[in-house]
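Hi V.,

You were right to ask for the full record rather than a summary. Here it is.
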Amino acid sequence: MTRLIVLVACLSVLSVSVLAWQDPTQAVPPSPDRGAPGDAPTINNEVVATARTGVGNQQNDVKPALLNTKIQGPDNRDRLSNSIMHTLPLKSVLADHRTGRDGQYLPTRVISTVSPVVVRRNDPQGASYQEGIGYSFLLNSPKYPGLCRMDNGTLVLTLTASLSGEVVRRNDVTFVDENTRTDVILFSRDNGMSWSSPQRIPGYRTTPMNLGGQRLMLRGWNSKVDVPETYRFWFSEDAGQTWSDEEEVAALPDGRRPITDVAPNMLIEGNTIRFMFYVSGGTVMRTYNHVRHTWDEPYFFSKPWMDFARCSEASLARAGNGDLVASFRSSRPGIPSPSDHWRSILTARSTDDGETWTTPDVHSLYGHVHHSLLTLPDGRILMTFAARLGELDGRLYHGHEAVLSHDHGKTWDWKRRYILFRGTDGSMHSPRSVWMDNQRVLTIVMHPVSFTWRDGQTKGNLMALSHVSAVIWKP
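Predicted structure:
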């Protein structure tokens, strides 16, 4: 009789084990849990036996013995207490997280693990949150991201990276040697979920611009000193595989030379690009024909307008109703300015294609810079900007934000702005956004880091290192 009981018990265990064994080639749905509380536990929709044991007069559920070779691999026989901690196939996790013995990503990898990130939307009734997707670029100390989308949906990203890794030391502080940085270009053909290997390109602190078809343009500097005298254009007729010789950006008729930075976007319509340049004295608008490589006469804002606006860099977009909408970086009167963190956001509109402009609306006094504009397919206008001195729940913070206009730039829904990224350094820089085929927005942000604490014995603090990260989200 004893042998019979043992045999029956062994057969029972064997039957449960066979039921739990799964063909490792069969997909496992990555659902967070399988079954509601009280349901029999399942693996791949098969019911797993649940044993019950009595303690005194009380019945208690014993946690099921779960085996799934897709999740655990064929050689692991641990009986998991839950179906929550691991839902992804082991092979896919190993493939995504390939590292050396030191635990670092392999040097051929371009971006970190594509992971869920939280995007917050403020609201007077209480904040709401969405699960976005995010990752960082793994180039050495990347800076100054430029971004555009080509007609065929390909995303084009430019970065300034420290590929040689050279550093300089000044006053016991260590910096990446800016003179040794290299600009590179990357492409994504799957809505930002992966990127090509970087290719070196001409220029410094460049921004790509889609001119239609296979044509691209770079704007940036031909030296590591971002002064107006070195501002240039480069052109590609083969989707960024090769580039023309540099083209000098023409001076204004009065001799002043214009520049802009990587974050502001310009208005490309047909064969023309309408630039909002910064020159000594303020903002100027000028139209460039990228086919003939010629310039129209510049548009100067009136002196009373400029006296109020006190603006420099600017972005320009065409609203759904035909108006021009511009955002401006401004230095407001009476606000201290110990650094360029203390700049603000203005917007203005033109209903006559740039002949006249509304008095600017002042949206912030300080701490919000590098704003870019994107008109969405439904007519809303998205403004993305760096919050160098942002405020969140009654505290200062550093990050990147976005806000929408639902009425062609007349007003902006500041009470319901989006918090896209939160960091620890006040030098947030250069957010750029594109609308993608999957009805999502990809926003690229730069977030530097400096290690500033030191005492009399500390030497070589690392300063002005940088990261570039992506957030994929839905406005």
